[in-house]
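Um, can you check?
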Amino acid sequence: MTDSNSDEFDPTAPDQREIGREMVDDSTGLGSVMAHVYRGEIDRVGTWRERLDETTTWAVTLMAAILTWAFSSPDNPHYILLVGILIVTIFLGIEARRYRDYDVFRSRARIIQENLFANALDPSQGVESHDWRAELSRDYRRPTLKVSVYEALANRLQRVYLALLSVLLVAWVFRITAFAPRQDWLTTAEIARIPGIAVVAVVGVFYVVLLGVTFWPHERHAKGEFREGDPDDWKENR
């Protein structure tokens, strides 16, 4: 009995190299394939959105625990609040990294929404990007992050973390001033052999940097679509 070569796979064969083209021939259609692709991208967007929320939840939970313990007794050291600031900053870094990954899949979903589905609903408006299929293909071939670390940090600070860190700052200032009225606040701010003026200076510089990252003008790469337009326009155009 002779072996048959009919089951052998040759990746260089023309029919194998064009297998992707056959998926969108006249019998199946690009729309059918893109519907499955879109469902997959939306699922990824939801997964990464949940991861962002989980990071925020942990940051708020730990911050609440630290605030409770810091003010439960006058004998508890004030620097536990500075530890809280450090921990929340670490969560900020984690969430910024997760936001960059989340934006990859969100941007793909938006490309499909605004160029395929929107055009299908109202072809008179045309597509947002005439080479959207090539753009999406390039991103599937070589996925790339769409926003920088700086922009991701600024986004998460504006949305969540600047408020959390501000609460901790106010709590720390209150802890070394009004909560310890019998001592000079610079003396209260001391940590071991580190003078209070040095501690206050480091904290002040840290928050100046945070404000700079949050509000310093920079070129946006994320679309920021929900920040555009007037909400009343939706009611007027219905």
